[in-house]
Amino acid sequence: MSTSSARPAGDPTPEPEREPAGATPTKESSLTLERGLNLLQAVADADSEAPTISDLANIVGVSRAAVYRLLGPLQSRGLVRREGSKVRLGLGVLWLAGKVVPQLRFAALPALRALAERVGATVHLTVADGNEAQAIAVVEPSWTSYHVAYRVGTRHSVQRGAAGRAVDLSEEGPKWITSVGELQPGAYGVAAPVRGVAGLRASVGVIAMEPLSPDEVGPLVVRTCSAVADALG
Amino acid sequence: MSTSSARPAGDPTPEPEREPAGATPTKESSLTLERGLNLLQAVADADSEAPTISDLANIVGVSRAAVYRLLGPLQSRGLVRREGSKVRLGLGVLWLAGKVVPQLRFAALPALRALAERVGATVHLTVADGNEAQAIAVVEPSWTSYHVAYRVGTRHSVQRGAAGRAVDLSEEGPKWITSVGELQPGAYGVAAPVRGVAGLRASVGVIAMEPLSPDEVGPLVVRTCSAVADALG
DNA sequence: GCGCGGTGTTCGTTTTACGGACACTTTTGT
DNA sequence: ACAAAAGTGTCCGTAAAACGAACACCGCGC
Prior knowledge:
2 copies of one chain form a homodimer.
Chain A: H1 31-45, H2 53-60, H3 64-76, E1 80-83, E2 86-89, H4 92-119, E3 122-129, E4 132-139, E5 155-157, H5 161-166, E6 177-180, E7 188-194, E8 202-208, H6 214-232
Antiparallel strand pairs in A: 1-2, 3-4, 3-8, 4-5, 6-7, 7-8
The structure holds a DNA duplex.
Protein name (chains A, B): DNA-binding transcriptional regulator, IclR family
GO biological process, one term (chains A, B): negative regulation of DNA-templated transcription
Domain IclR-ED (chains A, B): 92-233
């Protein structure tokens, strides 16, 4: 939550206060929406056993009448669907997911571009989806005569390529990974995982036609990963 | 807004039974949740221009204070994230999307199984994601000596294979599509698109090792598509 | 038959969310 | 440079919205 460096308005200066016992540090929340999203989450959590209305009322901790009210808006947007008396996730979720990728890409682009121009090679952001990895953003340097063209949307196993293996790189151990000709003969890769963004398995990678100097490029990639993580977190 | 409101009022339940009593199309709704989801949608709709709090207040038609309150729950679940003073979609959406596929698969399985047993060949449900198609459910017949093994998760271009081309089959024209050896030499395919489920581009296909009788199998596939559409809609 | 576990809707009450106002900081503009 | 504009974040009293118990109802099994 807004770990961004620049905090716009002043809240670190509790100067004009007369708040005796600050019970909650400004708990901004809306109970109804909270419950509505709890409901959505409860539906999502039930993988194979579709919950009934009553089940949901129990899980979320509200009356059944409330579940009906909350289900309305959820349903009209296709986030949930009713199948007889069972409730399941709806396809509106997929629509939303389709919208998140461009925004994710957009947010990460500046950091990727900086790296691409710096090292003069193609840079990409890859996210894991199950045990497949997919490139969601690619940036090519603007000043080179030759560089590798890498297509957005490329998918491969998370076990292949520097970018693939990097997404699940353990906390300890090497900070980055290199590969030679794993996905494409003659292609040299360096990649590092993006850490610190909850729910995201991703990596930033560099692809070049000539061997990269790992000691030089590696740290740059790692730094870009941090930048990307900041941009997304 | 969008097409989501295209919910046929009449409950399309060709499913035999289970429907308790006459479902009265009562407009159950919760204003707060409605607004909260509108907010989420507003954030999703802004592809490249990240909206500010004030923007969102204008778009959704509520006071800024309300936006703050609504943003709380949304943010804590990672559905949106704040980037300085801009608001973007969060990664919780991807998490949700990951949960919808198994439920989708589960819902469609009975219809697929029925078809597989009927024609004695492997049946699969394929959904399009961008210009790639991915098999999310595969059912193999239980009584055949030989059948094609097809892996869940297989991806290919939407232009290839009967299942791929079927997802974007226009309303007019053929009801189903056949293919021979397009993805795999010696494999014969018949596929038809799943229609009527808003926001979903999908197809049901049959794969066999021997030529299928289109006139016989085609209508069956189409019928299965309807069944699947009903199960999901 | 009767209870049991479901759904769907109503109604009066009070909790919840509303939005104008304020204090403040950052950016814009002449 | 300074002023004006636009932005954020938070307070408050008020009114409207959401709450949950209760009701009417249906299908199933003991």
